[in-house]
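Protocol step 4 of 6: record predicted structures for both targets in the notebook before any analysis. Target 1:
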Amino acid sequence: MKLKDYIREGYNIVTTPNLAYKIQEDYPDALVFTGRVLDGIPIGKLLVDRYYSNNPAVLSAKSLQNAYAIERFTCEFTGYETVVLMTGEARRKVMQQIKKRIDESALDDRSNTNLLEIKLKDTDSVPEVYYKGQKLEGLIDVSYHYHTTTDVVAGSTNDINMEYIGEVTMYPDKKTIRHKREV
């Protein structure tokens, strides 16, 4: 599928500001989001430029979508030609920025996220729980227990039990995550 096919099917789009402007010119009814307003992505169908696929706002909107696609917004895919060819110093600076962003996104690819994070502001607050980097919403019950019989990892256990509401619908779905290993 090409960009115009996604737009015909009613997809909202996340892409760079320059391309967003061009898309809005050609398809005024299309909803296009850029790096400046990614927090306002509505529920529906979402087409994401691969450049933004690891953006935290895009990742949090992913679970709310009925359909979700990631594409590389090449000239062939979008149907647009490169407007200005960069040469010399401008090209070198842009390439350095691109490489820096790629390196930063490689560090934030969630491959080094913790299995479990529990944040508690005080004893009267609701904890924030992150499992494999994803925040769990609608917490019902969270318990974590660590026990050791020796000073080595082989003699220890991490018992995790979490219940939460998944997607909020007319009939809420209760989800459970459990890890239990006996010593």
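Target 2:
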Amino acid sequence: MAAVNSRESIGSLSMYFKRDYRHDNTFFSGDFEAEVIQKRAIIQKKRIHLRFKAYEHERISALAYSMDCSVSLAATMLLIAGIRNRDVSTQMVDSEVIRLLDPGRLKSLKMIQKYISKLNDEHISLFSLIPYIGHEVVDTTKTLHEKVNLWIDDNIKNID
């Protein structure tokens, strides 16, 4: 989970710290008078199942301890903070696209990305490109991987 490594995401939760918390080289002082997390206002009664790596779970547990709440509530708050942080969202989408594509496909996608950026006179990130690809490829394909591959096949012809 990228949000657990983001100083900005952790910083946005610091108003809830009842105990001291250290994030890498940053120290957040706890305050026993800190705001209490209102669980009902945050969670909408839908379940989600996630698996964390052991070191991520340890960091979320430490965060939960400093916020004086359960690990699941701390993970929920961290997910919300990560989604609201554009840098974290961009990093997650980019790393997932890189993981899904083979090197040749990734090279083609980056070539298309540069071409579109050049046409628009601004940098277009993979994060911006993925929703566009999903919208453009509206057929029976089911996975992001299949949609990206189909979109690359259709658009690489225009560049060559």
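Step 5 preliminary note on target 2. The longest helix spans residues 103-120. The chain has a mean pLDDT of 81.
Proceed to step 6 after PI sign-off.
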